[in-house]
Write a structure and sequence with these properties.
Blueprint (H helix, E strand, L loop, with lengths): L4 E6 L11 E6 L1 E4 L4 E12 L2 E11 L4 E11 L4 E11 L5 E10 L3 E11 L3 E10 L11 E11 L4 E11 L2 E12 L8 E2 L3 E5 L3 E5 L2 E4 L4 E10 L2 E12 L2 E12 L7 E11 L5 E9 L4 H4 L7 E11 L3 E12 L12 E11 L7 E12 L19 E16 L5 E16 L7 E14 L2 E4 L5 E16 L35 E11 L5 E15 L10 E3 L2 E8 L4 E9 L5 E11 L3 E10 L11 E11 L4 E10 L4 E12 L3 E10 L9 E10 L19
Antiparallel strand pairs: 1-2, 2-4, 3-4, 4-5, 5-6, 6-7, 7-8, 8-9, 9-10, 10-11, 11-12, 12-13, 14-17, 15-16, 15-43, 16-18, 17-18, 18-19, 19-20, 20-21, 21-22, 22-23, 23-24, 24-25, 25-26, 26-27, 27-28, 28-29, 29-31, 30-31, 31-32, 32-33, 33-34, 33-35, 35-36, 36-37, 37-38, 38-39, 39-40, 40-41, ...
Length: 711
């Protein structure tokens, strides 16, 4: 019968030692020889504070105050560090000693193999003639990469690894030599030092290398400087981040000089900040500025073509929302002139939802205003091809009340009624086409019926069909005003039964109309779902406010056709089209996605007919495809393209290859961008990044899928 004894080791030679100096011992067998040597064998465990040692045999001599341990030995210190060894001589408080034939495992990520380890003051662990790696190692096999050094010191307090005379070896072949090297251990979240460098080559900048350096400025702020050197440019990127108790602040940018624009400083600054104020208010600040329109594209910063700087103050509660925003817009598009664009905009909105007990239903109240300013002083048409005045300024103040309520009968028929009242005051300056002061008042009411029907399918699934009809009428004083916020109106299933399908206030859908639609779905037991919807709008009067391709022009709208499909095999499909009676298609779009354990494919098609009101002189169509394929658990490829089917040419083409395991990430990318703009030129780019993972917190994303002995 195994006998378990628990003894108290006194780390001093006298019995008057304090309890803080005591270590604990558990063993299968313990013997004390006449000369005072304690011998423990079997499943031996010794612990002192958070330090714990497990071994096959331990001997302790009170006169020397030292533990002699015979392995296999396992030592843990409560910080995630594990030491495995064959033999050890440890001090009585387990804080220092010498360990032979050992391995150090840090946070189950980094492994250090050495012939001898010395522990000093429970803080430092020194390994001599050691090698370190985060790769999975089989007995007798060479790791994918390793760092060999004359000495490696691990500081468990500062959480740093120090290497003396270090060599980086790939498949045991020396690649780099470092007289001195410092790396963070896996438990350290943030530390000053170099980040992963990136190598790329492009037709705009040539061969480029970026070497970011991270500065830890405190527990709540940091700075990253990214010098970039290429055959055609030099640049210094920067990013500053700071966290507060009630918010955060970050800004990034770069300063560059290149041969693309000679003797000119180029760069950009993007900044964001958000803070929580008293009484639930949130303050947000965003700044975006760039030296020239092509910089963001040429330096791979962003693909945005309009810059927005703003200050926002908002508060959102369960039944109330308010927001105030000051915005400045700057267009980078070649076809737009900032002098005739609404570059300065001030807007505000207050929304509230009420559940009136007297009439039931839901009542939504909204007050909003918008002021827009253009720097142009022209009160006539500009130099573009249309006849619209370009340099005008506007101001709008609006009040909106919306009430709706539903009743459901015993047979399932749903009666829905609603009404909306809106009044707006417009002030227009520098526009001879419209009155300088315009008041608009409109009242809209609607009544509708919908009848959800369901039945069981033969396989046990469920089929749903819901026809719906809605009669809408509008009365009031509706006058023409400049249209700024509703120049693009989309007709889809989301606004088929809305009072006003325009996204903003400036465009109003007048007159009486009848909205009809039928939607349905089949949900099969096999987890396949098929959905569809058909809808149309009939008006009393011919409406010429919407563009011809919006699907809403005329007295009768286009047919709205929507279909969707989801299967258990990972296929998702949604398609939408606007179809005329003659069969002509004004707009169509489709998106399909298929995903399983091996690959993920997503394709999108968009087709648009010519429309002068939407600044589209010819029909356009585009096909885009993204494909991700996993060859093995470690190898993955990504590819994609965007094809302009109208002219039969590619606009984007990209390919990427990634290798990732528990200790290394290798990313290769290649892309080609085609452009017909004089501002943005065509660009071909190749990129390479190699990341040796393990020496930082949270970097391990690939599991150790390999096994010793497997092929």
């Amino acid at each position: 019968m195994v006998r378990i004894l628990t003894l108290l080791f006194l780390m001093c030679s006298t019995l008057s030692a304090s309890a803080q100096q005591a270590a604990n011992l558990i063993a299968d067998r313990i013997e004390i020889s006449p000369d005072g040597v304690l011998q423990a064998s079997g499943a031996v465990t010794v612990w002192h504070g958070e330090t714990r040692i497990s071994a096959r045999e331990i001997s302790y001599t009170s006169s020397g105050g030292q533990l002699k341990i015979t392995g296999p030995i396992r030592l843990t210190d409560g910080t995630g560090t594990v030491i495995l060894a064959d033999q050890a001589a440890i001090s009585q408080d387990l804080s220092q000693g010498i360990i032979s034939s050992a391995r150090i495992i840090l946070s189950q990520q980094v492994q250090i193999a050495t012939a001898q380890i010395s522990r000093v003051s429970s803080r430092y662990t020194q390994a001599y003639h050691a090698s370190a790696t985060s790769c999975f190692i089989c007995e007798g096999k060479i790791p994918l990469w390793q760092i060999r050094a004359k000495r490696i010191v691990h500081d468990s307090v500062e959480k740093q690894l120090y290497f003396d005379r270090a060599q980086l070896r790939v498949l045991d072949v020396p690649v780099f030599f470092f007289p001195y090297l410092r790396l963070p251990d896996p438990t350290l979240k943030r530390a000053t030092g170099f980040l992963v460098p990136q190598l790329s080559t492009s037709t705009t900048l040539g061969t480029t290398i970026r070497a970011p350096y991270f500065f830890k400025l405190g527990d709540h702020r940091d700075l990253t400087l990214t010098p970039m050197v290429s055959s055609r440019a030099t640049s210094l990127g920067f990013q500053y981040r700071q966290a507060y108790q009630t918010g955060r602040l970050s800004f990034k940018g770069a300063i560059s000089r290149d041969t693309i624009l000679l003797d000119k400083n180029r760069g950009y600054i993007f900044s964001n900040a958000g803070f929580e104020l008293d009484q639930g208010y949130m303050l947000g600040v965003q700044v975006q500025t760039v030296s020239d329109p092509s910089y963001l594209f040429e330096y791979n910063v962003s693909e945005i073509d309009r810059l927005e700087s703003n200050v926002t103050l908002n508060r959102t509660r369960r039944y109330k929302n308010s927001e105030l925003r000051f915005s400045n817009y700057h267009s980078l598009r070649e076809s737009e002139t900032n002098a005739t664009q609404p570059t300065l905009i001030t807007e505000g909105i207050v929304q509230r939802r009420i559940h009136p007990g007297s009439i039931g239903g839901v009542l939504d109240l909204e007050t909003s205003f918008l002021v827009s300013y253009r720097s142009s002083s022209k009160d006539t048409d500009g130099s573009d091809a249309d006849s619209d005045v370009d340099g005008y300024d506007t101001a709008r103040l609006s009040f909106l009340a919306d009430w709706h309520r539903d009743w459901t009968s015993q047979n399932g028929i749903v009666l829905d009624v609603g009404s909306e009242i809106e009044t707006s005051q417009y002030i227009v300056r520098q526009n001879q086409t419209f009155d300088p002061n315009t008041t608009r008042l409109r009242a809209t009411s609607a009544i509708g019926l919908q009848w959800p029907l369901s039945r069981r399918l033969q396989d046990g699934g469920l089929q749903l069909i819901e026809p719906r009809i809605q009669l809408v009428g509008l009365t009031g004083q509706v006058q023409d005003i400049p249209n700024q916020d509703s120049t693009r109106v989309e007709f889809d299933e989301g606004n088929l039964f809305r009072f006003n399908r325009a996204p903003g206030f400036d465009q109003t859908e007048t007159g009486a109309r009848l909205n009809i639609g039928v939607s349905g779905s089949n949900r099969y037991v096999s987890s396949t779902t098929i959905g569809w919807q058909v809808g149309r709008v009939y008006r009393q009067d011919n409406l010429n406010k919407f563009s011809s391709t919006s699907g809403l022009s005329g007295s009768v709208s286009d047919w709205l056709l929507v279909g969707s499909l989801e299967t258990a095999s990972g296929i998702e499909l949604i398609t939408r089209a606007l179809l005329k009676d003659a069969g002509d298609v004004n707009k169509t779009e489709a998106r399909i996605k298929w995903q399983n354990d091996i690959q993920k494919i997503a394709a999108t098609y968009v087709g648009l007919s010519a429309d002068s009101l939407e600044d589209r002189a010819t029909s356009l169509s585009s096909l885009a495809l993204d494909w991700q394929y996993n060859f093995t658990p470690n190898w993955r490829s990504t590819s994609g393209f965007q094809f302009d089917s109208t002219i039969g040419k590619l606009s984007k083409l990209g390919f990427g290859l990634r290798y990732a395991n528990e200790c290394m990430n290798i990313d290769f990318s290649a892309s080609r961008r085609f452009s017909t703009s004089t501002t943005l030129k065509e660009k071909t780019e190749f990129g390479l990044s190699v990341d040796l993972t393990g020496f930082s917190s949270g970097v391990r994303k690939a599991p150790k899928s390999r096994q010793c002995g497997s092929k």
